[in-house]
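Deviations from the work plan: none for this task. Representative record:
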Amino acid sequence: MPFTPLDPVLHSQLRLAIVSLLMGIDSAEFAYLKSETEATQGNLSVQLKKLSGAGYIEIKKTFKNNYPNTTVKLTKKGRKAFEAYVKDISAYLGK
Amino acid sequence: MTEKESLEIIINMIDRTKENLKEQSGFYLIWGGSIFLAALVEYVLFVFYAYPHHYIVWPVSILIAVAATIFMATKMNRKKQVRTYTDKALNYLWATWSAMLFLVLVFSAVGGISWATSYVLIIALYGMGTLISGGILNFRPLIIGGMISLAIALVSIITGWFSDFPSMLLALCASISASFLVPGYLLRKS
């Protein structure tokens, strides 16, 4: 059986880490993602925009304690893409 | 990035979203403590002093507990950067639970059921809320506490305690200790 090419949106270290984190939670703030992924602010912003552009995540900008606050949530499309990605890498790893 | 590295990232990240059970303990202790004290004080006022406005302890203790809950929730939300599915499930559970409690209290207030009878329902509600949250948090003392409260409600019906107001106040003390105070304390220590 031929291998399915891996989803290029998810096949990147930081984007995969973000989506993996969001799989287990309802929503997360930018600061939480930054501390858990240990990414820089700039890089995290860029990768979030890419994920949002692909329709994998939903970004909400609000205010918390008078400061701008970004909340990120996985979309149905993102969840499906992650599940397909895990299935694909499992095939590669022969599991 | 190899497929093996991808898998390592996924496992590592999923591992980081484990629940923090300890932060839930404050709510059980606030409500457990205030309801326990209110029921006990009402019992003393009713049985030993025959004070006609013995019920006055309830609005006072509930107001204190609501104020403490709002203060604690605001403080927690300020720090909280992530909302887990557990948080979401518990929010829905306790919001529905509060609505049901309100319904029982209104039903009693309009004379649909006696206060003593409403206590059986309230004890059963404690049992239900604690049992479900114990299941969601996978925390055995809450599950056991919930079962004890449901058992107290059943025993109150079978023995006829529900028709005796002072007995129901003591039953409420026992129920709140088993389903809120003890599990709340154990949760804090966990």
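Chain B has a mean pLDDT of 88.
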